[in-house]
Design a protein that fits this description.
Elements lengths: L1 H7 L5 H4 L9 H86 L1 H10 L4 H158 L4 H35 L28 H8 L13 H7 L3 E3 L7 E4 L16 E9 L4 E6 L11 E6 L4 E4 L1
Antiparallel strand pairs: 1-6, 2-3, 2-6, 3-4, 4-5
Helix pairs in contact: 1-5, 1-8, 3-4, 3-5, 4-5, 5-6
Amino acid sequence: MKKSLLSALLVCTIAVSAVPNIVLADTYDQQIQEKDQKISELQGKQSDVQTQINELTNEIATVSDQVKTLEAKQDQLNQDTMKLQDKIAVLKVRIAKRNEVIKSQARDTQVKGQASNYVSAVLEADSLSDVVGRVQAMSTMVKANHSLMEQQKADEKSVEQKVKDNEAKVAEIKTNQAKLETQKNEIANKQAELNVVKANYAAEQATAEQDKSKLKKQQEAAKAEQARILKQQQEAEKARKAEEARQAKEAGKAQKAFEAAQAKAAAEAATEASSTSSKTEESSSTTPSSTEVSSSSSKAEETSSSAAEKTEVSTVDTSSSKEDVAVTPTPAPTTGGKVDHTSEGNMYAVGQCTWYVKNVAPWAGTYWGNGCQWGASAAADGFQVDGTPAAGAIVSFAQGQSVGTWNADSTYGHVAYVQSYNASNNTITITQGGMGFSSPTGPNTATLSAAGLTYIHP
């Protein structure tokens, strides 16, 4: 009795095995720091690009100023050209008028003759000096008309040359203007490209900031989950201690009852031995027949033997109870009454192998401990525990024991549910849970050898 109760006190080590393998909240700090660094780099790149954009803006402004200067020069040249054109027109009129005067003089010379004119001038003169003066005046007038016309023609050519020079300058200005416009467009294109680059950096920064915000939310969620698990662990530990105290109390009561039963059995054995001794003495004081002697002797021996056997059994049980205090029992085939656990809740940590098995096999105990302890705990609760595989049974793995392609935890072992048993090749197909699987809450299926394992039967 004491052996069974002490075995039931084995419970799971919640502080370690119950912690889910979630991403710790602290690991998000590094990821958030990386996002901050990326955001800072993108801001720096945007600043550099903006500097280049500003420089190009200044270049565009400079080129625009140059274009305006050329436009002003062009306007001035156009105005000068207009003035020169006007001057040329005036000269042309003057030259035309002067040319008419010269032509008129030429006609007079041809019609009247220059000599008669000179004669008339001489004859009509009052004196010789007047004659000389008139002749010189006429000659000077003719020469002056020719000189004036030639000068006017020279002026006309000079003005025309200035107009041509202005037109050349205007053409040069237009060429320079075209070059500056091309340069201005190229700078504007570069500026547009840099604006696109800046926009891309801004978009990357926005994405990084969104990622950072998500990481912060995930970090807060992880912290909340850790707090929830810690609270669950504390509640589970409190429940474990309460159950441990209850079972210890029951164990104490059972121990007292057991000792009382031992004392009662010893007293009964002593009373029966005394009664047998009295009958033997009475028998010896009479003279019985040989048959009665033989019968009495046999009964006495039988009674003595029975008393001795009871005493021996009592001694063995007491020794066994004392030994259980120091030694943990090993799983062994058991029969008899079983503790009904079907109505109990699943107190194991979600995502652990023990939680999964309790979930698919409600008849399993709620406080059977770690996977490697389930065999002893089940035996203590009256379940059949042996090495015989069977569908519907629970299989318990010792610390570090092979579970097909991997080994059970070196400290806590492992448990799984036997889905089926193939006797032809002595293999079992199991379903299981645990944090090491892609689906911690199961089911995760595997087929492995059935030999050398501990099975708990419902």
